[in-house]
Specification:
Blueprint: E1 2-5, H1 8-11, E2 15-31, E3 34-53, E4 63-69, E5 72-82, E6 87-95, H2 104-118, E7 123-129, H3 133-141, E8 145-150, H4 158-161, E9 165-171
Parallel strand pairs: 6-7
Antiparallel strand pairs: 1-4, 2-3, 4-5, 5-6, 7-9, 8-9
């Protein structure tokens, strides 16, 4: 496997389907002055998917890396600095289904973490969904922790759908 920087002119606007299966979710229970996060199981495995594209115009200085084997793209990761708060945001990470659980996502994540350090950012952050528990576990394993959530980011029924936006982050430096 070889990881190389993806050229913006080759990938800008190219849309990809992100798919995952989950059998659990992080339930967010709010009562009076208390918020509780509880991992719960779905009655059956749920399939989720969404589309996203690379090098969106809203990104400040996007960079992306692809993992290749014999010229075939196995997965990619994209991120961008957020200069207004000195953080680096991972905007996309995808390992195609047939190549998962082979260390590709780990290698891609490590590349972007190291890149963010060269920018002297204070944190690296990302968004996932409360029902994408495999991703949450992967990020926890890599030193990310919950830094926030938005109960109604995707729709007015996010809590009911058990698909709440979760923000996770990892400290990179002591810079304030």
């Amino acid at each position: 496997m070889k990881i190389i920087e993806l050229r913006k002119e080759d990938f800008k606007g190219k849309e990809y389907l992100f798919e995952y299966e989950t059998n659990s979710y992080i339930d967010i229970e709010i009562t009076d002055n208390r918020i509780e996060l509880i991992r719960k199981s779905f009655p059956e495995t749920i399939k989720k998917s969404f589309k996203s594209s690379l090098f969106s115009d809203w990104l400040e200085l996007p960079i992306a890396y692809g993992a290749y084997d014999n010229g075939k793209l196995l997965g990619f990761i994209e991120g961008s600095i957020e200069s207004w708060n000195n953080r680096f945001r991972i905007t996309n990470i995808l390992v195609f289904k047939e190549y998962r659980n082979k260390g590709i996502g780990q290698s891609l994540l490590n590349i972007l973490i190291e890149y963010s350090k060269t920018l002297n950012t204070r944190m690296i952050v990302l968004e996932t969904q409360s029902c994408n528990t495999k991703a949450i576990d992967f990020y926890h394993k890599n030193g990310f922790s919950l830094i926030g959530f938005d109960l109604y980011n995707y729709s007015n029924e996010d809590l009911i759908k058990k698909e709440v936006r979760i923000e996770m982050g990892k400290m990179i430096s002591k810079i304030k």
